[in-house]
Amino acid sequence: MSDLTSSAFLRACRGEPGSRVPVWFMRQAGRSLPEYRAIRGEGSINEAIAKPDLATEITLQPVRRYGVDAAILFSDIVTPVHAIGFGIDIKPGVGPVAEKPFASAADLDRLRPLDPDVDTPYVLETVRNLVAELDVPLIGFAGAPFTVASYLVEGGPSKTHARTKQMLHDEPALWHNLLDRLADIAIASLRSQVENGASAIQLFDSWAGTLDPTTYERSVLPASTKVFEALADLDVPRIHFGVNTGELLPLMASAGATVMGVDWRTPLTSARARLGDTVTLQGNLDPAVCLASWPVVEREVRRVLAENAGNPAHIFNLGHGVMPAIDPEILEQVVELVHAEGRADGGPDA
After folding, report:
1. Which of 260, 272, 264 is nearest to 301 (CA)?
2. Residues acting as catalytic residues
3. How many Å apart are CA 219 and CA 230, to the nearest integer?
4. pTM over 0.85
């Protein structure tokens, strides 16, 4: 294990100049890689996550292929609630599905505290394996209370989040208790990943953008703030990400993140105008652009770099996850281009 404190990724997280713009991709491991499909096997993704050697290899695959500046743990945002027996699995081609959705105060008993050493020891073994092998930082992650709650309440993915919104408006006390328990689960999971060697953490609030700012501030922000405040003593970069959250960025940043993920709908210039210089920005190429021809992808990568205008507080990423149909060779070229044409001031870089 090498000293990663001066790595391109961690320097950018701290807003420090480096020799290049770091880049990694959300969902960089997985279905877009033929080497992933070759070893993945049958069964639920939760079964793969529970095999440390397999999860380690899957995490390493995109680092080897793309030359990215950070790895992200191969796991899932519902892994902790699955591990404590709530009754949720990841259905291929669908996503997280709860056989019995969360509907009443009685269901709070299904959300006992997470004990990572007992409930998710395989995740911690994977983290330790990766820290021993990687020469780039490892990002640990968890699902934010709102996004995990939306899967538990809806019973699966939703375009409207109607049941979730009904509950948070009609039953605020129940909603608060639900998010409070999920915040505690996220805290335990993230802390355990850092204590076993993860160099940074990301809180995925993927569906927060379905809310208006007033509702977010009242019904979601307190739980996300609880997560970030409980982890502040760990002194690692804390990334906060959501989709379609341009109007929520200042509120989300106030929860305590040091890095804010920006999706492709919000230009980096607009995000900086809203957030100031207090946080690093991560993003924000539209993933669908990577399905186009290389000249188009090349143009759009350069546009994102131009919008950043050489600010050292930038981590290049997609505005959401890698799509399964994206050609891995395109992503290889993206990494090469970002490294070649991003900031190059001669600063130290591991």
Report:
1. 264
2. 27, 31, 40, 76, 151
3. 19
4. yes
CA 242, chain centre distance (Å): 9
Q: What are the structural domains of the chain?
A: 8-341 (3.20.20.210)
**Per-residue model confidence as pLDDT tens digits over 38-86:** 998 778 899 999 999 999 999 999 999 999 999 999 999 999 999 999 9
C-alpha 140/C-alpha 156 separation (Å) is: 24
pLDDT digits (tens, 9 = 90+) for 208-233: 999 999 999 999 999 999 999 999 99
Q: Is the dihedral of CA 265, 282, 317, 232 positive or negative?
A: negative
Query: Cα-atom radius of gyration of the chain, to the nearest Å?
Result: 19
Contact between residue 127 and residue 133 where contact means Cβ atoms under 8 Å apart: no
CA-nearest of 198, 209, 270 to 231 is: 198
Confirm if 79 and 46 have CB atoms less than 8 A apart.
Answer: yes
Residue at token pair 């999860």: 55
Q: Is pLDDT above 80 for 348? A: no
